[in-house]
Amino acid sequence: MYVGRFAPTPSGPLHFGSLVTAVGSYCDARSKKGKWLIRLDDLDQERVVKGAHSNILDTLDSYALFWDDEPIYQSKQKHIYTHWRKKLIKELDIYPCVCSRQTIRKHSTLNGDEWIYSGYCKTHSSKDKPIRSYRIKLSTPCSVSIDDLALGLITDDLCKSSGDFVLFKPDGTPSYHLASILDDHYSGITHVVRGEDLLLSSLKQAKLQKIIGLTNSKFLHLPIVRNKEGKKLSKQNKADPIKIALASSTLFNALTFLSQSPPSELRTQNPSDIMNWAVENWKVSSIRYEGSNVKAEAAIHSTHIQDD
Questions:
Q1: Which terminus in the chain has less CB density within 10 A, N or C?
Q2: How many CA atoms lie within 13 A of 120 on its CB side?
Q3: Mean pLDDT of 181-196
């Protein structure tokens, strides 16, 4: 059975970019008669904004994005993370890393927005220095492939695009990658739908799933929503929150952005009718991507930002 999920970080309200992901994830799950779950990625409490949990859930409900089961909170999964930390420390080649951000930049090369870790701490003593993280030692080469439902087969060597990545913080808190695959495993997630900007994260997680013996997820990466300056729409770039009062027109714009060609009269329908249409007419093959390095032949399309 198809089981999908939407996993926002409660660091603020949803914006148009996060709505596009939610809509794509919901449509893909419901069109295959699957379940759709909600997980709040609130493990990093420093990023959590008071009231954001309930705001996100209320917004999804108002947009007729109705989930199955009770929402899952990462902050309540710590017993699972503790079990796996003890297990993986015994079974995997994991080493302490004392590198500060400055040290990583000094000894690494940049791959897009991510630094390729050089393995500095594998050859330099960490004695008498504060441990900042624990990294997994990857095999060389470290080939990984995912067969994206829209983009097709994507293969990479993580040694060249990422380097040894973090598994735990010094206090034992799992990294985003480890927490994500463990949460997906225990929730029975079969399909992960997310933005194209998280492609490298998906490759890391697919490799990590294989390394620790978990079933690989299937992936669908959606086009990135950008602002007028061409930057990814995000909380960091001060993206405006979506408005409940404009749910119908914003949903219409999200479906248009995803190249689903909703009929113009749908714009004024209620959110439930819009999403019923969206599920019945969902076509992954219709999704169009801007000229990206992932699929060069992908068609360029216009973005549709919500009405003021």
A1: C
A2: 18
A3: 97
